[in-house]
From TrEMBL:
Species for this entry: Oceanobacillus kapialis
Cofactor: binding details: Binds 1 potassium ion per subunit.
Domain YjeF C-terminal: 226-504
Segments forming domain YjeF N-terminal: 9-216
Protein name listed in UniProt: Bifunctional NAD(P)H-hydrate repair enzyme
Binding site residues for (6S)-NADPHX: 57-61, 130-136, 159, 261, 327, 377, 444
Gene name as annotated: nnrD
């Protein structure tokens, strides 16, 4: 499923009509009928349905929905929230069809009264404003939306909640707080932005007949990484494989104050399927995590004041990929390890404290030909970009892409919706996972799974997307079973990896 901006969605519309000959009225009919069918699956036959119809495509969809519901015997009526002269073109055509089927259209001047008198059992369909909205809604729509949001009725939005921007980066708006949104053709970008996502409520994306070529012409490729992609790309294993076929990973990190972080990463890499994992850390940390990771091997590194020190004797050639920074602390004396690892001829994952060290010397990325993967949360992304966290959360797609392209790295921007970005700007969103992952150690577990995935027979991008899927789905399956979002621990997520493999492979 593609993720688009408003401009990209308009381009898909225009391409479809120009290159395939499909008419806008047919797309409108398809959209309205599909949404009406979904509403019938959700709503009891005895319930009344009020469609709030505006102008343009969104209003036209609303008239089709009302007509389809009435033809199926439902009690559906329309409140037109704009003046008659604003209903033109294909929307006017579908309004005429609706009225020919004995449909009732209440005018705008009755709007306030009708909404005030709504019974709680009446289902409201929001088809007022589509993806073209800019800035604050004006009256009467502003008042109608404010009034609607005070009700407890089930509210279903068509394509996008009215008043909500389709593109990231907008903060000044008032929008319908939908119970459910049926997006049409493609998912709107703001469904994955922290401050706008809640307005959609539950959502689905419906196929109404846009040709595949319409999406292939998009300049910016953004997709959701789903169970289907995971199953299609995850590499199969042969009965003749040996441990060397599944990767020899090196993990560098740990300190006296944070030994558990390295232990979680190491165990996660082992549990997710790495052939061999070596943890490079201080002797004190090894003593504290060895029993937690008995299958791992260990590399003792020098320390000073309980923090890792540079060691030029690490034999990177023995390994297939390196992850570093996990729990290593922010002492300046540890910083040379970043440059040393970056000079190796191996794929490199930088996480946690490693990102803080990287910020002090971003030139270590210059000229590195092997893949570099950064795994920041929004605070670390803001630190790297010298922005506020609010800035990053407002435009996560833009800033992840900008940093990835500027520094030729892969970026895994963690959050409720983790965004994976390639150096070329290709992006995917992982939607697995739940609030149980909002715990210390969850990111360390993800880094271990990423290390394993990039050593398997799949592209780096596929490996990163599959790692995020596994991490989130482990939490989902555990919460469906013996855990809750409150008690779930990062170490539980490691043990849940086997549930993901058994369930989806």
């Amino acid at each position: 499923m593609y993720i688009v901006t408003a401009e990209e969605m308009y381009g898909i519309d225009q391409f479809s009509m120009k290159h395939t000959g499909v008419e806008a009225s047919i797309l409108m009919e398809n959209a309205g009928r599909e949404i009406a069918q979904r509403i019938m699956d959700m709503v009891g036959f005895e319930q009344s349905i009020l469609v709030l119809a505006g102008s343009g495509n969104n209003g036209g969809d609303g008239f089709v929905i009302a007509r389809t519901l009435r033809n199926m015997g439902y009690q559906a009526s329309v409140l037109q929230v704009v003046d008659d002269e604003k209903i033109t073109g294909h929307a006017a055509y579908h309004k005429h069809l609706y009225q020919k089927c004995d449909g009732i259209v209440d005018p705008l001047d009755k709007g306030r009264e009708i909404i005030e008198r709504l019974d709680k059992e009446v289902v409201v369909v929001d088809a007022m404003v589509g993806i073209g909205v800019k800035g604050m809604l004006r009256d009467p729509l502003h008042s109608i939306v404010t009034q609607l949001n005070q009700l407890e009725n089930l509210t279903i939005s068509v394509d996008i909640p009215s008043g909500l921007p389709a593109d990231e980066g907008e903060a000044d708006f008032i929008a319908v707080q939908a119970s459910h949104t049926f997006m049409i053709g493609a998912i709107k970008q703001t469904a994955f932005v922290q401050h706008t996502a809640p307005y959609y409520g539950e959502w689905d994306c419906l196929d109404i007949g846009f040709p595949t070529r319409a999406f292939e012409q998009l300049e910016n490729e953004r997709k959701i990484w789903t169970e289907k992609e995971f199953q299609h790309t995850f590499p199969k294993r042969s009965a003749y494989d040996h441990k060397g076929d599944h990767g020899k990973g090196l993990i560098i990190g740990g300190s006296a104050n944070m030994p558990g972080a390295l232990g979680l990463t190491t165990r996660a890499a082992l549990r997710s399927g790495a052939g061999l994992v070596t943890a490079g850390t201080t002797d004190k940390v090894i003593q504290r995590i060895a029993t937690f990771c008995p299958e791992a091997t260990f590399l003792t590194l020098p320390e000073e004041n309980d923090h890792l020190q540079y060691n030029d004797e690490i034999e990177y050639a023995k390994f297939d990929a390196v992850a570093l920074g996990i729990g290593m602390g922010r002492e300046a004396t540890s910083r040379p390890i970043i440059r040393q690892a970056a000079s190796s001829k191996l794929p490199l994952i930088i996480d946690g404290d490693g990102l803080t060290h990287l910020k002090e010397d971003l030139t270590v990325l210059d000229g590195k030909e092997e893949p570099v993967i950064l795994t920041p949360h929004p605070g670390e992304m803001a630190m790297l970009l010298e922005l506020s966290i609010k800035d990053v959360l407002m435009r996560p797609f833009y800033y992840a892409k900008k940093f990835a392209e500027d520094y030729n790295v892969y970026v895994v921007l963690k959050g409720a919706f983790t965004i994976i970005t390639t150096p070329e700007g290709k992006q995917a969103v992982n939607v697995s996972g739940n609030a149980g992952l909002a715990k210390g150690g969850s990111g360390d577990v993800l880094t271990g799974i990423i290390l394993t995935m990039i050593m398997q027979k799949q592209s780096i991008f596929e490996g990163l997307c599959n790692a995020c899927f596994i991490h989130g789905k482990s939490a989902d399956l555990l919460v469906q079973g013996q855990h809750s979002e409150h008690d779930l621990l990062a170490s539980d997520v490691i043990e849940g990896v086997s549930l993901v493999y058994r369930t989806f492979l």
